[in-house]
Amino acid sequence: MGVRFTVLSSGSTGNATVVDNGEVKVLVDVGFSAKKMEQLMKERELAASSIDAILVTHEHSDHIKGLGAFARKYDLPIYANEKTWEELNRQIGEIAEDKKRVMDTGAMEEFGTLKVESFGISHDAAEPVGYCFYEGEQKLSVVTDLGYMSSKVKEKITDSDALVLETNHDVEMLRMGHYPWSIKRRILGDKGHLSNEAAGEALCEVMTSKTKSVYMAHLSRDHNLMDLARLTVNNILQERAPEAKQLRLMDTYFDRPTKWDELDSE
What we know:
This protein has helices at residues 34-43, 61-64, 67-74, 82-91, 151-157, 171-176, 181-188, 196-206, 226-240; strands at residues 4-9, 16-20, 25-28, 53-55, 78-80, 100-102, 108-111, 114-120, 129-135, 138-143, 162-166, 213-217, 248-250, 261-262.
């Protein structure tokens, strides 16, 4: 078995993804209560007790809401960089010292044969990161909550078999929306969130013939629609990367998990 993954939920209300190589199961973020996490996992016939480790992208509540409770309940190690740990220590309650694992930005950790590399991204958090997962020749990249796609991020996620990629908002819906201008400016800024258009443009540069699926993630419930995100990204791909016919644009959900996606399956 190669790598398989499920986006348990994605959006402003909470985020969590499970990556499984048949040997270990790694959880990226815990944006829901422990009880809700258990429910989401159960929908994918996954026991919460089977998780081996937790990776944290950054300290915002929609990514760590249940982190402390879930890690304590299942006695799990938590991996984050030092600056993120400084914030986590203020927010998630007591964690045993031997369960606090410092994973420097840019470092590679090995969980059995599954290798995980972190990389820095631009967001209004202490030291936010994305992750690439490697199992043999297979590669999965998870990158949300970034204001723009830097050349370094593009380099890291290029040639992935699958991506979980932020398509947070439609720019015009956001501009016309009810948020105060200060919040709109934050979202639109370099440390905010990636728009549908920006995600589509980035995909044209990072996808290869190896790339089979992109999960459109972290959609705003106020300033985006899944159909609109898919249409926008697809139109950009058709115009700028017509060779991308093999690429599947996949939905994520704020209230339920995606189906398991196995990278070694056609």
